[in-house]
Predict the 3D structure of the following.
Amino acid sequence: MTSPIKAIIVGAGHRALVYASYAQQQPEELQIVGVADPLEHRRKQVARLYDLPPERCYATAEELAVQPKFADVVINCTMDHQHVETALPLLRAGYDMLLEKPFATSESEMWTLVDVARRYDRKVMICHVLRFAPFYRAIRRQVLSGTIGEILNVQTVEHVSYHHMAMGFVRGKWANSAYCHSSMLMAKCCHDLDLVAWMKSGVKPRAVSSFGSNFQFRPEKAPAGAGTRCLVDCEIEAECLYSARKHYIDHPERWHFYVWDSLEHLEAPTLEDKVSSLKGDNPYGRCVWRCDMDVVDHQSVIVEFEDGSTATHNMIGGTAKPSRSIHLLGTLGEIQGVFEDQRFVIRHIDPRPGHEYAEEIVDLTVGGDMHGAFGGHGGGDLALVADFVSVVRGETPSISTTSLDDSVTGHLIGFSADRAMAERRVVEIGE
């Protein structure tokens, strides 16, 4: 029997622990043998979960990289701006890598990592988990089978819910580009841009245009009576839709890994601990209209491909309901669906008398491709890890597999879109 792939976690945050949990479900395929994280309590948490000795726990990627190699791969889930600086020494040290998206925060950084991975012949898979979700995988199979002919237009839309927007991109780690070094588009919609590139795989994007702004979460939009901290000086907290009490006390588990990271040193923080935290210096206790947010809350992207086809992506933050939708229009038909519904429609022209078009509904919740799906992102999270293990072993991966080169196209679209938005012009890819 093939021995499990041995992995080291670098950056022991929420996403790393999700991917690493594959080792608990499939221990014959993946084994966690080390950790590197600057926070001692996170190193101890991983050590407890995977029975690691102290000598396999490191504070930094650099410290790990100078040790004799003792694993096959690294699961790198550091913050966006740390991806490249932590990846390079570990790639040079001989490790293949599962690397969180976006894998770089600038085009120059991206090409640096690509160059090192190629020079040292390392396998690097980017965590584009939606490629592995049964919903998108089933759509991709239809495209590959020629069901709708040549794709002439791709439309993707992401509605970011009000509580996700406030947590991640107003109050949280991805609200200020000086801190995270990623734009809203790259931090949140890197998945969607990758899906666009995947559906047009083999055809390069030629030009990009984009518009967007922070429309809602600005000081001048604050309602009368709004304070600076929800539970300290706000007169309208009781009726405010963005009350920190409503988001994080009434729903204490919804975003717990992010909101309560300052309480991780407590084994079982109480609601009183959490309220006190929000009244203190916890950034999640701030008024959403008085944060240091400098990213957009909505953005539209238009892409032209070299074959003349086009694509659009629309991101809107602060919606009541979260959703992702996709619409592919081809020369022989179209595919349209909503990710959260786990179903899509295939339409074809039907010119018969009394007809206009024919429809087929593919419902993945009824004996379909959802069977056996596991993990978050509609089954994509751990399916990604399973494919990564196959790639490292040299086995034939699924149609979803993202090599580093596969991921470059979506990143180029994103970087170019942000330039186009900032400079208010059409950006030619590779200029």
Remarks:
- Residues 404-423 form the longest helix (20 residues).
- Residues 368-374 have pLDDT under 50 and may be disordered.
- The chain has three domains: 5-122, 130-217+295-373+401-428, 220-290.
